[in-house]
Design a protein that fits this description.
With 360 residues, this protein is of the alpha/beta class. 45% of the residues lie in helices and 16% in strands. The longest helix is centred in the N-terminal third of the chain and has 25 residues.
Length: 360
């Protein structure tokens, strides 16, 4: 079976697509082609996973009238380019994971009578997926709320491929020695996205100082590369159970984490739910349609996480919730058990079954 995966622009779109591609290649023997934007993260990230990549020129339908017109011109141009790619590769199905690049590629597939599928990671669909949802043959979602966006008769709640792929990986304790984690304490992991957040880093400085006084807790705090020097300079010398880093390998670290404090992006939620990591979610208010809050709210309503909105973020609130979770084994277990119900560890297998259903 040959599969074209399409995603662009952000890790939230790209990483689930890569996860499904690896699964279909390694477990099902499929041949994979990944189509993305030629100057976005996928252009460098996808080849690292030994997946064939083709990059097209594309831009978002945002900003000035001139930029939007250019976007429409690129859509029209890329429909023709995509038809040539699809004719050469001869896929059995084309699967879009979000981003404007999905529009021309999936429209081209539809015009060529190739089955198409969408994967929507968030509780609120992006514009590209909303457009394509009308013509896609099948749609996969990760949150119950997304049923409100798409035709229910062809939409299935199957979850994120990231959940499956994370659980297939073996525990790697070497990450702890790399971070110089001492052990013997509750491990708290705080990360606010791969690029970090200036506002969050400033607010968290007081949290780190408070937690540094508690010898029962070990903390790994990820600032993001852009803010690392400023945060380290602000905090000064810290005790050995507090680790401030620019970046870490989250996949390897998560199996050892007792409490996670993070944003509410779909990929992060898929990962922590897959492993049942007790979490305190702080949704970014700067994303389209406030989708991170809606992602988090669905977990909160099921008792699967704690929630702090950024407008309510203070040292006392965050420190209090961290200490409460670290000191309450029953509460952590309850959050973990409920989070695992969202994990959908069989996501890749069930998506694979849906693919075969659509092809037939």
């Amino acid at each position: 079976m040959r599969v074209v995966l399409v995603a662009g622009g952000t890790g939230g779109h790209v990483f689930p697509a890569i996860a499904l591609g690896e699964y279909l290649r390694d477990q099902k023997g499929c041949e994979i082609l990944f189509v993305g934007v030629n100057n976005k993260m996928e252009a460098t990230e996808v080849p690292k996973h030994d997946i064939k990549f083709v990059g097209l020129e594309m831009r978002g339908f945002v900003g000035s009238v001139a930029n939007r017109l250019k976007c429409l011109q690129l859509v029209a141009k890329n429909i023709g380019v995509s038809k040539k790619l699809l004719k050469e590769f001869k896929p059995d199905i084309v699967i879009g994971f979000g981003g404007y690049i999905c529009v021309p590629v999936l429209l081209a597939a539809k015009q060529m009578n190739i089955p198409t599928m969408l994967h929507e990671q968030n509780s609120v669909a992006g514009l590209a997926n909303k457009i394509l949802g009308k013509t896609a043959d099948g749609i996969v979602i990760c949150f119950q709320n997304a049923f409100d966006t798409f035709p229910k008769e062809k939409t299935k709640l199957l979850g994120s491929p990231r959940a499956t792929m994370l659980t297939l990986k073996e525990k790697d304790p070497s990450i702890l020695s790399e971070l110089q984690v001492l052990g013997g304490r509750k491990l708290v992991y705080i990360v606010m996205g791969s690029l970090g957040s200036e506002s969050i880093n400033a607010a968290m400085s007081d949290v780190i100082r408070e937690l540094s006084k508690n010898n029962d807790i070990e903390l790994v705090y990820v600032t993001g590369p852009k803010h690392y020097e400023d945060v380290v300079s602000t905090l000064g010398e810290l005790p050995p159970h507090i680790h401030v880093v620019a970046f870490t390998d989250q996949e390897r670290l998560l199996p050892f984490v007792d409490v996670m404090v993070c944003r509410a992006g779909a990929t992060t939620i898929a990962e922590l739910c897959a492993l049942g990591v007790p979490s305190i979610l702080i949704p970014s208010p700067y994303v389209a349609h406030n989708h991170q809050y809606l992602n988090a709210k669905e977990l909160v309503d099921k008792g699967a996480c704690l929630l702090v909105e950024e407008k309510d973020l203070t040292c006392d609130v965050v420190t209090g919730k961290i200490l409460e979770l670290c000191g309450n084994d029953a509460m952590r277990k309850e959050l973990s058990d409920h989070a695992k119900t969202f994990g959908r560890l069989d996501a890749c297998e069930r998506i694979s079954e849906y693919i075969h259903e659509l092809i037939k």
